[in-house]
Design brief:
353 residues; alpha/beta; TIM Barrel; Sulfite Reductase Hemoprotein, domain 1; 11 helices; binds iron/sulfur cluster
Length: 353
């Protein structure tokens, strides 16, 4: 499937460009108190290593806004300040070097306050995300129409102040409402869109809701940045976001494992084998090429090689050993116990070809 991306305006968040066909950026949110500079910086560094490209922090008071400068000196990805209720926190955050401000039209809406933020953001050359959330609507109804109207009227207000450096999100906890709201909005505006389903729940439920919601929109060509929200460690959000982008061939993050579901023919403990392989690929990803390699891991030799036709490289297990194949041809046999080591060795070489 070829996805034609929606034409959107180019916006710069620090050194990350979004919109106008730039790669869809992965965002996540730090989950420790922003005022605890050591803890938040250390979490962001881990997130960065995992593949997070833009990070957001909650700014709930002046100390948190002032912490931004020191946090930024310790990290290498753009930092977004998440502001609610108190417009002055946006001003302090910009003063302290935030690369983008997220405002919620439901709780910062007074013209004189928004104009001050817009003027300061314009001067600093940073974008504002108009982050509509169905759970905190003020003037409009908490439904699809209301979310779209809220975003458009806030954009009008910003444009009246001469501010055009805008990103938009329209998040709801209902997957179908979120999809509808983004689709409607996408027809009415060229500003880039940050996608997300809010309050999705635990990892299991949240990954599914996000994959459906964000995935459906991405498949439509809508979306310039994404955040998977989970009641879980932020690294899980980043991993899930990467999986969604990989599944739609929108980004490549190195080898993708295609493993069979197993059945009565399976000749190996494939579930554990794939888990171990996944762990190895994620801890040693720096040794591998970022080329989009499809790696098939199949439980039997009967259907394995055939089922793995779409893969670049893979293994199909037999009673005592496994058959390694590359570009649809058998390369060699390897012992089951050495499978992970051998696959990894082959992958390293394969990436260099
Ligand atoms: S590859 Fe073999 S073990 Fe895996 S599902 Fe197919 S038939 Fe079953």
């Amino acid at each position: 499937m070829n996805i034609t991306r929606r034409s959107s305006k180019e916006i710069k968040i620090g050194n990350v460009k979004i919109g106008a066909g730039h790669p869809i950026a992965i965002q996540s949110m730090a989950k420790v108190d922003t005022r605890n500079i050591a803890a938040v910086s250390s979490q962001i560094k881990q997130m960065q290593k995992c593949g997070c490209e833009v990070v957001r922090v909650a700014v709930k008071d002046k100390d948190a806004a002032c912490a931004i400068r020191r946090i930024k000196s310790k990290i290498n990805i753009p930092l977004v300040a998440d502001i609610h209720f108190n417009y002055e926190l946006a001003l302090f955050s910009i003063e302290n070097g935030a690369d983008k401000i997220r405002l919620n039209p439901g709780n910062i809406y007074k013209k004189d306050q928004v104009s001050k933020i817009a003027a300061m953001a314009n001067k600093a050359g940073i974008p504002i995300r108009v982050g509509v959330n169905s759970g905190s609507m003020r003037k409009y109804s908490p439904n699809v129409e209301g979310m779209v109207k809220s975003a458009l009227s806030y954009i009008n207000m910003l444009e009246d102040f001469g501010f055009y450096n805008i990103v938009v999100s329209l998040k709801a906890s209902s997957v179908s409402e979120t999809i509808e709201a983004y689709r409607k909005f996408a027809k009415k505006s060229r500003y880039p869109l940050h996608l997300g389903i809010t309050a999705t729940g635990t990892t299991e439920e949240g990954r599914i809701k996000s994959a459906i919601g964000i995935g459906a929109l991405l498949a439509d060509g809508i979306g310039d940045t994404i955040r998977v929200s989970l009641t879980a460690d932020p690294l899980e959000e980043i991993e899930a976001a990467k999986e969604i982008l990989k599944a739609l061939n929108l980004r490549s993050f190195g080898p993708e494992i295609i493993s069979c579901p197993t059945c009565g023919r399976c000749e190996v403990d494939l579930i554990n084998m794939v888990k171990k392989l996944e762990g190895k690929l994620s801890t040693a990803s720096s040794q591998l090429s970022t080329r989009p390699i499809k790696l098939a891991v199949m439980g039997c030799e009967v259907n394995g090689p055939g089922e793995a036709r779409a893969a670049d490289f893979g293994i199909a297990f037999g009673k005592t050993s496994g058959v390694l194949f590359r570009d649809k041809k058998i390369v060699k046999r390897i012992k089951k116990a050495e499978a992970i080591k051998e696959i990894f060795k082959e992958l390293k070489n394969y990436g260099k070809n």
